[in-house]
Structures are given as structure tokens and as C-alpha cells.
Amino acid sequence: MYAQALVDGVFSGSIYALIALSLTITYQPTRIMNFAQGEAFVLGGAVGFVAIGKMHIPWPLALVIMIVAAAIMGYIMERMVMLPVQLSGSRFAWIIATLAAALIFQAIWTMNFVGDVLSFKPPLDKSYSIAGAVMDFQQIAAIVISLGIIIAYDQFLRRTLLGRAIRATAHNSDTATILGIPTRRIIVGAFMLSTVVVAVAGFLWVPEIGINPASGLAFTIQGFTAAVIGGVGSPRGALLGGLIVGLLASFADAIFGGLSANIGVFLALGLILVLRPAGLFGKPMEGH
Amino acid sequence: MVNKFLLSGWAIRALALVAIAAVVLYPFWAKHSSNPESNLSVLIIAFTSAMLTMSLNICMGYGGLMSLAHTGMLMIGGYASGILFTRYYTINSWYTLPAALVAGVIFSVLIISVSLRATYLYFGIITLAANLVVMEIARNGGDFSGGENGILGISPPYIGDNPISPMTFYYVCLAILVAVYLVQRNTILSGFGRATMSLRESSETASALGVSPSVQRVKIFAISGGIAGLAGGLLAMQSTFISPDVGDLNGGLIFFVGLFLGGIGTLVGPLAGVALIALIDFQIRFSGAYRTLILGGILLLSMMVIPRGIVGTYRASRWGEAKEHDVASEDRDENIITTSEIDPRGEVVLDVRDVKKHFGGIHAVDGVSLAVRAGEIHAIMGPNGSGKSTLVSCLTRYHSLTSGEVGLFGKPLPRTPHGVARAGVSRVFQVPHLFDRVSVIDNVLTGMRIHEKYTWLESTLRLPRYVKETRAERRQARALLALTGLQTKEELSAANISHGQKRLLEIVRAVATRPRILILDEPATGLTQPEMETLHNLIVYLAGHGIAIVLIEHNVDFLLGLADIVTVLEGGRVIAEGKPDEVRNNPVVIEAYLGRTDLIEESA
After folding, report:
1. Of the ranges A6-20, B151-165, B316-330, B515-529, the best mean pLDDT one
2. Pairing mode of beta strands B565-570, B377-381
3. ipTM exceeding 0.95?
4. In B93-234, where do the E strands start and end?
């Protein structure tokens, strides 16, 4: 039983880690935690559901369509969030704007997929039995791909010129502008990249466990929790936080059942923030 | 002519009167409409929305506490009322309203006490998580909470043996709405509200004025939660059921739209915003998911087009803005500097012994001893990085000491920044820390918070002690402002006065705390010559009233012209101490500031 909880926990944890990573990607240049991020997760699932599940398009092509759709969504989201934030001047602008964007996208999903559970048949429908636990091929693929994306982004930040530019923008966007870093383009790019990452996460998740079109916000919150536990701002923290959240939830569910998974995760979040207000591995965040 | 009418403020009053009349007379129209009950119900639900939006306004707009848990508070209030009613179904549902209020208070106090240390972003996330948790609990609560369906069959209250008529219930809810508005208004306009707003600007400044940030946060969040719970109780009675969906953030969007559209951080904003949004919502009530789409769009648009909301935009316009005015110098002769205890001149009030502050390997303050005496102007000078500001931060408990002892009025130094402020030490920061969004006089009144004796309840009910104290405070605040020539600007927003005036205002605010020791960190920076003279006279005047002044300043002429005694720091140590003339000619001091003069002369 616990072996199964371990497998499921690592799988959901790696997905949460991707969501946490995508929140980090937009957080770094903008200092905004995007509540609408989870809606791109639903987008990933929805494209899979329509393209693979209903229209039977081969999955590589569906993946390309999904990535393009997610990038466009990221571009739209950037305008929906950043314009109000820049024009409003209120300290709450970011949270209200991203929440409004989240609810707008959620309304669009629920309108188009009334009563549907978004899911599709995995490309390779196999599973393996290891030490009493059943492990689907989809789960293995998801874990490997998530890990790959996180490592790649971590290396990108450290090794490339653009990565350093992003880190500079994260540190101080005014100074970055003076140094000739195109801040605006970096922000747009960050939004597009982050929605693609989340959409991929959704695409990996739904063949295993279908989702309700209105559940975007719930996934955002899991990602938040992971990001906060790991310390906002670092890909490695996102990975660690994601795994902690995933394992905590799956073990709580295996031991206590039902309601305990969500409550357990949030209690852990509360406890961590009380004991270490900056997150388990993070430095204190300034400006918020 | 029209313009003059608009400028006079009567236009806005007429508009308000029309709106009030419409709300009061509405049931008489609804009675004859085709569907009287549902028409009344629309407005009653709008009333509860307005209450919830005001509750949000109190904690977000004034307290600076981002809350996403307010729909949860609403839901909990409804459940408290519903559970009590269905368990003891003989109970008249009036009596469940206090339970709804208390449930809201308990829930909000739980949230805030868990997250007192959380920074601002995390606080928002914790409130969101708390909201989801209570919804989960309600969904999975079995018979106790009725699961997904919630609790049905909550009846409206009775009067005597008869159920209340919809029309009477309408007026009851309207009366409660008015009461909630008055609570909001009286809370915000009192010292309690000013302390809350000081917290919103920065908890550092709030501490310097003797306000304990944690205590104030808990209190304001509890008040906000109580109002939200009450609104939930009324909502449950009106709709005769309560379900977990009430806690859903989708439904909560309307409160945020109302708040931002009306104007966050204004008293009337929530009412105006909810009124407008209720009208819009009424038009789109059958649109299903489009409703969220439309409301979300309106929210984003209103943030872009009128970032300050309807009321805030009006206030900033030339029709609504506050103006300078003449003040009769009625209170000039009153003794305005009243320290709570006057220390005998020359007595040591602040005794610093061998204080050290190390940041890792950097010895910012490295064994400083000095004694500050009542009625004396004690200047601390030294080059940049000599440890002056760090020393001040140590003495006011913004930094912890690495080692050393500090005696304050013969007792050990209190442990918290607000404790130090309450003991009678007032501090003016190097960078202006004014409350930009409130008026000049409110800034001064905030300084008087420490000495206010009335309680929150007294100020909310406007009891005699509150009225008396407030009258005296305003008189004193005007007199203090007159010392610096700011009395004509008392109603202006503090953001709209010049830099020099801001610095002077900050000193006035510090003096309003009736300090026995006043610490000024570079007060003369950026002042014009006349302002410098005002400052000089003000400092002499204050010292003349027995206040010990600690003055840190870079302008050496200004400083030496004022000081009774000068301590010179370099590298975190005292390198000289004495009367201004002695220090001016001390070769060690000259070297610290200018380098070795003999070398300079040689090279020249």
C-alpha cells in the first residue's frame, strides 16, 4: 500500500514541481505569483482531450498544437495581468488581476466543456508491477519529462546569457532596464514559457487522472504550496517542494483517507510558514 | 454656475440623498411589482454583499492585509447560524446572528494568529488555503454540515409568534447595513483606525509610534471577520439555506469587483461599488458562466481605467479634493508641549554603556558609551558608515544588540520597538516615513495614539470619553502644526506637501507622542534655508521644554549651531566628545572628516 503511495506521490509530486517551476518563471522577472497559471494546466488537458480523445490526431502533432495554444494563452495572459498591475498602482493589483484572469479562463473552460472530465487514452497504455505497486508507463514518462524540464531550465538560468539577464531582471528590473536588458520582452517571454510548461504538465497528467475543467485554481494552489515550501525563485526548490507536496498528499490519503490529503498539505504549509516565514529553503522575499 | 454647484460638494450630497431615498422607498415599489419577494431578495442580498465588501475594505483597504478567506468567513457565519437553527429548531433565528458573528471572529483570529509572521504574499496564500480547507470541511462534514447540499430549511426570524414579513426583514437588514457602515466609519476615523492605517504604510513606522503591529493586526482582522460572519448569517436566513459553494472564490469575485470599482481604502467606496455591481449583476443574472466572464472583465478594466475606484477618483479630482484653508490662531497660548513626565533638566535619561552591534564580521557599532540628558541637545556626528544610524536602530530596538547595556530613565530598555516608543522615545527616520494617503492632521493624530485612553467600543459608539479626548487631540494637533506653519494644510493629503514640509510634519508627529527623548536622524537633509530656520527654532523650543534631543546630522554648521554636546563616531567607536567648539577644533575629528590636514596643506 505504501509502495503505491510512494509511486503515486512521486508522480503527482513531479507534476506539482512543474507547476511550481512555472510559477517561479513568471515570478522572477515580475514579482507576481500568477493565480491564473493553473488554467494553462487545464488547457493542456483540454487540447489533449479534444485533439487526441475526440479527433484522434496523433499525439506528437497534438503536442505541437498544445504548445502553440499555450504560448498564445501566455501572451494574452501577460496583457491581462500586467496592464492592470502597471496602471493600477495598488499593492493588491497583482493578486486581484491574476485571480480575475484565472476566473475568466475558468469560465471559458466550464462553458466549453460542460460536464466533461478532461482525459484521453495515453499513447502507450502499459503498466509495470514493482514491489507490490502498479506503475503506469505514463507515470514514468511524466516523472522523466518533468525532471528533464526542470534540469534544463536550471541550466539555462545558470549557463546562458539570457538566463543571466532573467536573473538580473529578477533582482532589480529598473537596474536591468538601465543595463539595456529588454525587460518587457523578458516578461512576455516568461509568461509564454511558463504557460507552456504548465500546459505540458496538464498534458502529462490527464491521461493518468482526468480533471474537471474548473479545477485550474486547485492545481495553482498545489503549485504555490510546492513553490513556497521549496522557497520561491529556484528550480531546484520547485522540484523539492513539488515532491514534498506530492508525497505528503499521497501518504496522507493512503493512511487517513479522503479529506486528509488537502488538509494535510495546507497544515504543512501553515506550519512551515509559521516556523520559517521565508519557506523551507528560501531566502526572505523583499517587496512583498 | 454648474461648475460652481459641482465644486461646492452639494452635487454629491444630492446624489447620495437620492440613492438613500431610493433604497428606503424601494419596498413600496416592490410590493406592487409582479414578483415582490424576489425583488426584495435581490436588494437584501446586495446588502449582505455590501457588508462583506466593507469587511474586506477594513482589512485590505485600511489594514493592508490581503484576504482571500472572506468568502469562507461568509460561509462560516452562515453555517453557524444554520447549524444552531437546525439543531435547536425551536430557536428564533434572531439568536443565531450573534453566533454567526462570533464564528467569523474565531475563524479570522485563527487565520491571523497562524500567519502573523508571514510576509505579505504568503499571507494571501495562507488565507486562500484556509478558505479551501473550510470549504473541504463543510463538504465532508457529514450530517453536521449537510455535505455538498449544505443545510436547508433555515427560516427567517420571528417577531412574536409570526414569521417576519419580507418587507420588515428588508428594513432590518438595511438597519444592520447602516450599523455596519457606522462601525466601519467610526473605527477608521478613530485612533484605532489611524493605528491600523499606520500598519498599512509600514509596520516599522507603526512601531515607532508605539503601535504593536501584531496586536493591531489581530484586532482589525477579528473585526473584519465578525462583520463577514454576520453578513453570512443574514445571507443564510434570506436564502433559507447555506452550502459550501457560498465559500467559493467565484462567488467572491463580486466583492472584489465592488471594492475596486467603488474605491478601496475609502469609506463610501464599498457601498458605491456594490450598488453599481449589483445593478450590473442583476442584468446578467441568467447568463451562467458568462457572468464570471463579464464580472472578471469589469474588474480588470476598472483597475486599468479608474485605479482608485469611483470614490477615490472623485476625491483626487478638483471637485472632490481637500483644499488649503485659513485657521484662526485660537489656541496659540495653550501649553502644547505636555510630556507625560517632565524630567529634571540635566538628569541622565538615556544611558548607553559599551554597546556593540556586529553584522557578521562588520563591526558597525563597536563599543559606544554615551549619556543623554534631559533638556539637552545631544548631537551625534561622524562620516558615512561610522555607525550613527545603526546605533539609533539599536537604541530603539530595531536591531538587537550584540552586547552592551542601555538604561532608559533608570530602567532597562524595553524589548520591542513599540515598547521603546511607549516608554517615551520617539524616533524620526532618515528617509521620510509619513502616511502618504491620509491627511496632514491625521498624521499628527496618529502620533497621539499611545496616550488615547478610549477603547474601540467607545470610539465605535462615540461615547463621551472618545468625543472629549478627540476634541482635545485635534486642538493640540493644530497647535503643534502651527509651530511649523503647516496649520493651513491640515486637510491636505500628506503626499501633496513639499519635501521639507514632510520632514517637518514627521517631527511634529513624533512630538505628538509626547516623547521625553526625541531622536532625529538627519532631519535637515533637503530642507530650504527658511525651513532650516524653522527646524532650528523647533528643536530649541522642544529642548527648552525639557525634552532630550538626540540629533544626527551631516550639515556640520547646522549641527554645531544647535548642539549642547557633541559625540563624534568613527568606525563604530567614539573618537571625541565635548562642547561644539572643542569638537570643531579637535584634530582627531578634523582628520576623520577631511583626512590629515597637514598632508592636505602640504599637497596644496
Report:
1. A6-20
2. parallel
3. no
4. 151-152, 158-159, 162-163
Query: How far is C-alpha A248 from the chain's CA centre?
Result: 18
CA distance A241 to A218: 16
Beta carbons of B307 and A224 less than 8 Å apart: no
Q: Any idea where the domains of chain A sit in the sequence?
A: 2-113+129-275
Q: Buried b / exposed e across A119-131, counting CB within 10 Å, b at 16+?
A: bbebeeeeeeeee
Alpha carbon distance B174, B44 (integer Å): 8
Q: Which CATH number fits domain A2-113+129-275: 1.10.3470, 1.10.760, 3.40.50, 1.20.120?
A: 1.10.3470
Question: Which residue of B130, B140, B291 is in closest CB contact with A259?
Answer: B140
- Return all residues near A183 (Cβ < 8 A) that are at least 6 apart: A29, A169, A173, A176, A177
Q: With an 8 Å Cβ cutoff, is B132 touching chain A?
A: yes
d(Cα B403, Cα A112) in Å, to the nearest integer? Answer: 67
Q: Which of A12, A255, A224 is nearest to A99 (CA)?
A: A224
DSSP chain A: -HHHHHHHHHHHHHHHHHHHHHHHHHHHHH----TTHHHHHHHHHHHIIIIIIIT---HHHHHHHHHHHHHHHHHHHHHHHHHHHHHH--TTHHHHHHHHHHHHHHHHHHHHSTTPPB----SS--EEEETTEEEEHHHHHHHHHHHHHHHHHHHHHHHSHHHHHHHHHHH-HHHHHHTT--HHHHHHHHHHHHHHHHHHHHHHHTTTS-B-TT-HHHHHHHHHHHHHHH-TT-HHHHHHHHHHHHHHHHHHHHHT-TTHHHHHHHHHHHHHHHH-TT-SSPPPPS--
pLDDT score of B603:
44
Nearest chain B residue to A114, by CA:
B289
A288 and B CB contact within 8 Å: yes
Nearest C-alpha in A relative to B137: A259
Cross-chain CB nearest to A100 (options B120, B130, B300): B300
A19 touches chain B (CB under 8 A): no
Which of B53, B121, B308 to mutate: most A Cβ within 10 Å? B121
CA distance B501 to B483: 12
Total count of residues recorded for chain B: 604
Yes or no, beta carbons of B125 and A228 under 8 Å apart:
yes
Q: What does the radius of gyration of chain A's CA atoms come to, in whole angstroms?
A: 18
Phi and psi for B426 in degrees, rounded to 5? -115, 140
Provide the terminal-to-terminal Cα distance of chain B, rounded to the nearest Å.
Answer: 72
Question: For the segment B152-181, what is each residue's pLDDT rounded down to a tens digit?
Answer: 888 778 777 778 888 888 999 999 999 999
- Burial (CB < 10 A; 0-12, 13-18, 19+), residue B408, is buried
pLDDT tens for residues A153-205? Answer: 988 888 888 888 777 777 766 777 777 777 788 889 899 999 999 999 999 99
CA dihedral A36, A37, A42, A44 (to 10 degrees): 140
List the one residue out of B495, B452, B510 whose CA is nearest residue B201.
B495
Whether B64 and chain A come into contact, CB under 8 Å, resolves to: yes
C-alpha distances in angstroms, B188 versus B57, B61, B182? Answer: 11, 11, 10
How many angstroms separate the CA atoms of B397 and B413, rounded?
A: 9
Q: How far is A61 from chain B (nearest CA, A)?
A: 31
Place of cell 485605479: B307
Record the cell numbers describing residue A204, joined without a space.
502529462
CA-CA distance, B526 to A273, in Å (whole number)?
41
Phi first, then psi: what are they for B480, rounded to 5°?
Answer: -65, -40
**B474 vs B512: CA distance, rounded Å:** 11
